[in-house]
Design a protein that fits this description.
The chain has 416 residues and is an alpha/beta fold. It contains 14 helices and 24 strands. It binds uridine-diphosphate-N-acetylglucosamine (UD1). Uridine-diphosphate-N-acetylglucosamine binds at residues 23, 26, 92-93, 121-126, 160, 162-165, 190, 302-303, 325-326.
Length: 416
């Protein structure tokens, strides 16, 4: 297994380009299963999760070809509407085949994802929503079997604006009979792009980007092409690293997706200069402590919470970081403590007392964003930090150590 080795406390400078968004490309890849034909997706990041999704689509029967950052998905031969446990347990986003396969075949067998590094992460909204569209659901051997002769439009109100449930049900409803209205829907840019892609394929979705998404069912969709939006979480990760370690420019970003994080970086005393599709961050002499509360888009993303905790570990004072989206997403805290951070967790809040410096140590990553947080802390710590279980970072960050190396970091990968 690989580990990332960092010789820390070296200043960063220069510029880095953001890749296509992981959380956008995964549902888009599954949406390509709905029509019969060849869809092309451009700017696909080279990630473990995109490779896992390719494998899943192939198991389902699609022909997938990957050429650099372009994927072509030929869904003509799709014949096996099933997502096996082996894949779903390694990548929850596999559950995104539920809606598209229902839309295409009216039946699907998908393994329940089970627990993950930060809590149970249920899928009840996806399932209740599908039942509202008329599907009959059965649980057998850990798999959900869903069936319907013809899905029928209905009104679905989410208890929480779930990203995955909004995406899955939007995809299921595109070929349902009549109109589906999703109330309290997710507004995340990745869901916006998914709905835009569905419309490109002939779906009739309105209210995209609002909390009420209206889907008028059509008979079928046709294949289409799309370029994936920039990864706002990757952009935020580099900006937070810059806030600690030096003036850096992050290129090819979607500025409007970064409002929450840029606002917080300014509060922390960073100088922020925005260009056309770029942001330059300059760290302050003294980093101010800034509280955050994660929230659904356009709030501060839970996917940047761990990185923000790493930043605040070195602030001049105390801060409170509350996660309202995932209440127990704090597996990075004991590892950050190994580097000398002073953090206490109570319920869904991390209380961070800034320290003057961190010192390198071996640490272990437990999920994608926790890994990013440990890399940022390791880059700021004196001496050597080794981050093991690096496959987590490979799930969600394209060539992360190369990108940090270009910025001047001493970071490399070793096989354990
Ligand atoms: C997606 C993102 C993930 C991000 C999260 C929140 C992808 C592939 N992953 O995950 O990176 O951290 O959004 O922005 O896009 N919930 C239920 N029942 C459900 C579904 C969700 O109770 O059926 C709860 C969850 O436990 C959580 C909240 O709703 O507390 C939000 O989850 P959700 O938005 O669904 O996250 P994901 O789509 O799994």
């Amino acid at each position: 297994m690989d580990k990332i080795v960092i010789e820390g406390n070296k200043p960063l400078s220069g510029s880095v380009e953001v890749s296509g968004a992981k959380n956008a490309v995964l549902p888009i890849m599954t949406a390509a299963l709905i029509p019969v034909g060849k869809s092309k997706i451009y700017r696909v990041p080279e990630l473990k999760d995109t490779r896992t999704m390719i494998r899943l689509l192939e198991i389902i029967g699609a022909k997938v070809s990957l050429n650099e950052n372009t994927i072509e998905i030929d869904s003509t031969t799709v014949n096996n509407p099933e997502a096996p446990y082996d894949l779903v347990k390694t990548m929850r986003a596999s559950f995104y085949v539920l809606g598209p396969l229902m839309a295409r075949f009216g039946r699907v067998k998908v393994s329940l994802p089970g627990g993950c590094a930060w809590g149970p992460r249920p899928v009840d909204f996806h399932l209740k929503g599908l039942e509202k569209l008329g599907a009959k659901l059965t649980l057998k051997d850990g798999y959900i079997l869903a069936e319907a002769d013809q899905l029928k439009g209905n009104e679905i109100r989410f208890e929480f604006p779930s990203v995955g449930a909004t995406g899955n049900l939007a995809m299921a409803a595109v070929t349902a009979k009549g109109t589906t209205i999703l109330h309290n829907a997710a507004r995340e840019p990745e869901i916006v792009q998914l709905c835009e892609f569905l419309n490109k394929m002939g779906a009739r979705i309105s209210g995209i980007g609002t909390t009420t998404i209206i889907i008028d069912g059509v008979n079928d969709l046709h294949a289409a092409d799309i370029e994936v939006i920039s990864d706002r979480i990757e952009a935020g990760t580099f900006l937070i690293a810059g806030a600690l370690l030096g003036k850096i420019t992050v290129n090819r970003v979607e500025l409007k997706h970064l409002d929450a994080v840029l606002g917080k970086l300014k509060e922390a005393g960073c100088k922020i200069i925005v260009g056309n599709a770029s942001v330059t961050v300059t760290p302050p002499d003294k980093l101010k402590p800034v509280d955050i509360t994660t929230a659904v888009y356009p709030g501060f993303p839970t996917d940047l919470q761990a990185q923000w905790v790493a930043l605040m570990s070195l602030a001049a004072g105390s801060s409170m970081i509350t996660d309202t989206v995932y209440h127990d997403r704090f597996s990075h805290i004991p590892e950050l403590s190994r580097l000398g951070a002073n953090i206490r967790v109570d319920k869904n809040t991390a209380f961070v007392r800034g320290v003057d410096s961190l010192a390198g140590a071996p640490v272990m990553s437990t999920d994608i964003r926790a890994s990013a947080s440990l890399i940022i802390a390791g880059l700021a710590a004196s001496g050597k930090t080794q981050v093991s279980r690096v496959y987590h970072i490979d799930r969600g960050y394209e060539h992360i150590e190369e990108k940090f190396r270009v910025l001047g970091a001493q970071i490399s990968r070793e096989t354990e």
